[in-house]
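W.,

You were right to be curious about this one. When I first looked at the sequence I had no strong expectations either way, so I just let the prediction run and decided to look at it fresh. Below is the sequence, 1021 residues in total, followed by the output.
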Amino acid sequence: MDYKSTLKGKQQDQMPVRCAMRCLLLIALAGVVAASEPLTVTSTAWSFTAAEGWGVWWPDDAKPKPFTVEQLADGLRLTLAPGNDEVRLNLWSERFKTRDLLGDPQAVLLDVEQVSGQAVIGLDLFDSQQEGLHFADRQLAAGRQTLTWAMSEAPQHSWGEHRNMHPDPPLGLWGLSIGRAAMTTPTVLVLHAGQRREQRHAAELVTVTLDTGSPIHLLAPGGKPVLVLANRSPVAAPVALAVSDEDWAGTMHSAKAEVTVPANGQLRWTLPDAPTTRGIHWIECALADAGDATARVSERLPYALLDAPVARPKEDGFLFGVVGGIPNPGPGCEAWLDNALDTVRWLGLRRIRTGVNWEYVEDAPGKWNEAHLDWFSKGVDRFAAIGTRIQFLLCYCTRYAAAADKQQAADHLQWMFSPPDLEAWRRYVAKMVARYGDRVKLWEAWNESDIEFWRGTIEQYEQLLHVTHDEVKRGDPTRLVMNSGFAFAWPRNGNHTAEVHYRVAKESRADYDILAYHLHNAFPEYRYILEGWLADVRKGAGDPPLLFNECAVNLDVYGERGQAEQLPKKLMFAWSQRALGYFWYNLTGGLRRPVPGHDANWGLMTEDFHPRAVFCSYHTLMGLLADATCGGRLPTARERYAVRFDTPQGQVVGAWDEEERKASEPLVLAVGPHARCTAVDLMGVRHPLASDGGICLMEVGHTPAYVLIAGADAPVTVQPPLVHLDGGITAVPGRSATLRLALADPLAQPATLRLDWTLPAGFGPIAAQSVELAPGAARSIDVALPVAGGRPVRLGEIAICTLRVAIAGTGHAAAVAVPVQLIPVLPAGTFTRAADFVLAERSEITDLHANVPQREHRNWTGPGDLSAQVWIGRQGDRLALRAVVRDDKHVQGHPAGEAWQGDSLQVGLAVPGSRDFWEFTLARDGASGAALIANTAHPPGAADAAGQTALTTTRAGDLTTYEASWPLAALGLNAERLRAGLAVDLLVNDDDGEGRDGWIELAPGLGHEKEPGRFPVLSLE
């Protein structure tokens, strides 16, 4: 275990576990005969039906559309009007934009009829790297025909972030590019179907879906999941399948079978074991041709085992919510709304954040799309029927209301995000309030006006907010207005930096009732913002009520486990800070596996309504806290969080530990003599806890958990810890580490503590022991931990030792995770060896824009975007550092003291256990190549050491080399201290031309907060 899995806030999916699981599935399918012969099959991929929702993207709405679209029973009729200009348009369906529709075809075919005129059609696809690919135009002839694009032909051009001009499967459909030259007669096309031609083995022609009896893939207790195998080939497909069902805890049940799926038909196969563990489950299904040794398809099919929906919560209280819920009208919208309602009903949420975008419903003054407004009204009423109210988002600008020069812009965002004519905006707000104001109490004026969604001034936004307030309050002053939820709460980010937050919050205080924020940060940043910068903004505005009405973390960066953990952390902390509510972003989005860098990686549900782990986490939280009131945070150590709630079921304590390098310790809760205590994990799995002597031991780790206390006579309090290990524990392999345990008797009578150790390979042994304590007494003991040598150690490598503490004669027992950081030993001398550390993995990256959906193009794309090799060591009486940074763009135009905002290094040095540290910023000027040095932190009483820092830099291709050194004496160090251990951190900043995008780092000790306690420790010979 190392920093990337234990010290980062980013909780990745257990990818090694999943890879191993897939390997086991493949092994399970291994046969004894040679691979079967593949088939060549042509099958329908799409059919231009009404359910597919085809439309034409036409950017110039100010001009009459030179086309009409008519839905037919067997396709789509497209008519291009005659004219003197060439016409080019894109036919597309939102339904296919994020889908693996085509797989890995040999060719894509289009069944189309040219009724009259002349036209050309080009094919636009996107691949697994999110690269858009345009394949050459095909000239149509008269009559019905099939156009063919072979995937072996080179695309004409491509777009996107990861372009290699090659289709990397699986492939999806972006759309069809249709054009005609100037003509005096209409061109009429009828599009019938799209097809894929494949050369595939039988198993590859079988798709697998999941049936749980619920359209949102929830399974009732006692039920069994059913796999539906569909064969798209014209011949029967004998296949072998290996299936595993894994739950949140990692428990897995596996099964194998051989079945024959009929030609162009289906077969239903029921898993043999009924799952019993509550919460999220992931089915992995691998298929192969019967008797074949090679598995050819692997499907991931999530579902959730849940007992019942959350009971409808009371109307007042904390606002639990989600973004999204009422789709725009169109094909499939009724079924989607049904599933959205079912999802929200199961969670018992009080609010959904949605609205009617202005540009959709009024394209000319007074010309309203009443059918769209009626559809939305129906959605409002259906959500109200399950106890869920709307928070209405008012946005964006419709074309006619933008400035004249913006209306004609080719880029529709120029007018959509433009400050609107205020009288036209007033009419829009008045229309929405008139239609929905009897059922909607919360109104939001625009969306994220601190970033690119608002392309006006702060003054113009404040004027819009004022007009919104006037119209929303007209006739009903109990309606509540909020500012546009701000996307950033961090200085030096956004379009207007911090100024827009301070100014709107203070200057426009009379024009809003609620201050709204969208903080897509992981918990450490989130807490830092709430307690620091945002607290300052609120203080300047007179402490307005606060609502987090769009918050999440990115699935691509944090994984499903990270999302499931971050939701309760952020929600409970916000509640303890007196926030009004917390809305997850968003209801649905994305595939069953994350798409890197895609805006769809956020949903509680996938786009096809499979639950993610965060859905189950929300369900558990709502089941406990739907009708709760917050009793505030309980006093705990700085990086430990415990929040108490009062509920109709009893008191609930939600707790977690944010510091993973220090030993966890059970929380000792004083619950009283009559209490009954139950532990509840994120998935809702429960088990009873002992309450002997009026206390309860709650195990607390990085993953949040809950304890439900029924029958307590008074508010629960926290007692001194049963067992405590002060500080981080380090060890050099081949030596013994000393663990100092502080033990305390939490009972009112003498206690005997039984200590038993479970140790990883290479540690121990440690004999079990018993410790006698008088009532309320405390005692410290030292435990020797032998650590074997003889193997290399990775930087920050952590070994987890587990101490089980039980109080004899009671039911009290708890496990304590003791992380021991192993210290690498690095030799002195010149850096002729291989790099000591290589930074090149996603887990070592912090993307400042990872949790701003509109800025995902600024996220890390791989080692070619940013990576580093690092050497550290003693060279005589100097401490030396060498870093070779791979960075596709070198951008540095700041003075030395601000150079951290561009491409640069930040270096932290500290004596282990000390709160005092050195920090240096090292950079290469982008214009002159000059070395930039700043000593941005040093211990009290120490002199600035920038002048004694030696730095040379070079840039060759995409590599920047930094070579730096410091006199040991200038840092208050010597050779003996270096051998004993030096805490070191290094951070590499990245700026690709739009400002600081993020960084890659050895450990999370410099980027967001200066925490020398998080620096990894090295022994330097």
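Here's what jumped out at me. The chain has 15 helices and 60 strands. And, maybe more interesting for your project: The longest strand covers residues 187-200.

Coffee later to discuss?

I.
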